[in-house]
Amino acid sequence: MNQCCTIGDHGVNVEFICLNQSCRDLRVFCFKCLQNEKHNLHMKDVHKLRDYGKLFENNNQSNVFEDLERNIDYVNTLFKWLKDEMFNSNSLNQEEIEYLNIEQLHDYICSFIQMQSQKQSILGIIQKNVENLIQTLNNCISDLEFSAMGNPGKKIKSELSNINYDLINESEEQQINSIAFNLDSRIMIAGYESSTIKVFDFIDGEVKLNQEIKLHKKSIYCVYHMKKTKEFISGSCDKTIIIFQQGDDQQWNLKQQLEEHQGGVNCLVVNKDEDTIISGSDDTLIKIWTKDNDYWTCHQTIIGHQHYISCISLNETENQIISCSKHPQILIHQQEINSKVWVLLQTINVSTWGRRLCFINDAIFTFQPERKEQLHVYEFNSKNNQFQLTKTIPVEIGTCRIKKRGCFWFFPQQFIKEKQILVNKNECSVNLILVNQDGQFITKQSIDYFTSGVFGRMTDDGQFLITWDDISRKLQIRQLKQ
Fold first, then answer.
1. Residue 216: which of 229, 198, 231, 234 has the closest Cα?
2. Are 25 and 39 in contact (CB under 8 A)?
3. Angle CA(366)–CA(372)–CA(377) in degrees, nearest 5?
4. Which run of H or E residues covers position 34?
């Protein structure tokens, strides 16, 4: 920390800290302060500022918690033993009772009644002590929370990790279903319900229309801008995928049209090398398209879903695909190394179907069940080579002004690796969730649009969130403020 001592005529950087509980002097000070006999009555509590972190490495708080955890484990063991005794001891089954004579049965019933009374007494004593323990813990937590209200360390940590996207610009637009950006986020592609595609310049949160394209016959459901080439692709309700290329005149023209789907194309994923397109459709099929000599062909058709495909995600290594549909299942496919064929690796049955999922990394993906206020987190278990549900994260659902509406498609989950932010639209709310180094999911901001008809995307650098909703009927641009 290269900061000068607050005593003006000292003019040197602070070097020391004081941890004495009774000290009333400034706790961060320089060598000249020390020479002036500040803190001389408790020098044992004066430490070098650079050693601050080491002072707490070997504190006995961790030992106390270890002792408490051992005691809790022992209490759990005793409780299990007590439970087994109460349920299993001195109990006879129906067959054994039928072999008793009257006197034996009388004695057994008396013993049983007495045992029940003892059990109630024991449970009452335990319950009272448990309530005392709960009250003690609540009091301790309240004391800590009260003490932390003015804790600058907690405040600083909160400020450092604060995430907030503020509205900086908006403009009237017809319904936009999908948005995509090029590598540096200076070109924005928007796919419209009207079947139009518009290409915008996107500079510092301002949009300027460059070109309107009307080649699709029906609504645009998904768009993706290539990162390595001046090309973008679009999927439409008209069952086609079109690859567009920018010419020397800066205008975008049709390069190739893919027509093998038998239903609307709902989602598109492209690999990093941009030689593979993965598409999901209303026809319940996933198609793998590969490029050879700059020409795209269908390499493989994946079956298995029982309803129209709602979302696809490709993992970081790009050897696994997760997909969901309007059916309570998540399918995981893996590419075989030699044949390059994708095969079913795992089927996860879920209680509620969902429209959105996303890989966070190779070992973790998230899934948003329809109309639920929890985000599901799945993690890979190396022992059985399966993904398993490990946690549920509370997420906002928002307030819908139009009743009995579904969540709507076309706003896929998006993980911004640079900022470690997961963008998760759920009903009427867009939840911005920070994934920290400990694997915790912390909702930092929830934007309520008061309608489930909201569509959008975040720029790949995490600086801007762009949405369109059917209440404001505006293209809204929000910028990250930290």
1. 234
2. yes
3. 20
4. helix 31-35
